[in-house]
Amino acid sequence: MNHTILLVDDLQMFLEIEKDFFKYAQVNLLTARDGAEALDLAKSHKPDLIFMDLQMPRMDGAQCCRAIRSVPEISGTPVVIISSSSDANDKEISVEAGCNYFLTKPAGRDRFLEIAREFIPGINRRERRIPCNVGAVLNVNGKAIACSLHDVGSDGAFVVTDFPGEPGNVVNLSFTLPDGTVIDSPCKIVWTSESIVVRPKGLGVKFALMPKEVRSSLTRFLEGNSKR
């Protein structure tokens, strides 16, 4: 049975963009143009996840989120509120309304999918992520920052760190596998978990330019652990 995601925005252009993010995912998509319509759909369809714009007519995202939290049958529905402004007040209003994550526009497909996977695991992911607790080092502009891995896959990892990275920035990540192989790879920051409640604070990164022999060692490690 496919999961259901509700996308809410008063601008059809943004709804079409967000729908395109999930076109290869095995999910059912619902759309609404304001908070009042979203609330009705949430009550009738009980979606597994809601991505909702903050600034909308009739009922805005914060008001709708607050209303969702007041209805017992849907009060636990994960809600991601999206704002075109990075104003701290917008985030405060959204968090107080009970949202699970506050996202600032523009946000690309990778970030939407990574956030969605926190609530609906496995959405459009080719490789399985292996939970782990491995010490690692981020190198940012020549500065070494101690960190650890929360999970790792052949495409990337989630790094537990207080470093305030920004999506799109490139950093270097190094860690050592149990067999002694050192993974040292440039990475692109895809998303941050500052506002997400189901992960520690950190960064979602995607590996880049990893040497073939190193990637092979990582693949063997992942295959060995996936059988346990």
Automatic annotation (TrEMBL):
InterPro entries according to UniProt: Bact_response_regulator, CheY-like_superfamily, PilZ_domain, Sig_transdc_resp-reg_receiver
GO biological process, one term: phosphorelay signal transduction system
Positions bearing 4-aspartylphosphate: D53
Domain Response regulatory per the UniProt entry, residue ranges: 4-120
Keyword Phosphoprotein: yes
MF GO annotations: cyclic-di-GMP binding; kinase activity
Swiss-Prot/TrEMBL keywords: Kinase, Phosphoprotein, Transferase
Pfam family, one: PilZ
PANTHER family xrefs: PROTEIN PILH (PTHR44591:SF20), STRESS RESPONSE REGULATOR PROTEIN 1 (PTHR44591)
Protein name: Sensory box histidine kinase/response regulator
Species annotation: Citrifermentans bremense
Lineage: Bacteria, Pseudomonadati, Thermodesulfobacteriota, Desulfuromonadia, Geobacterales
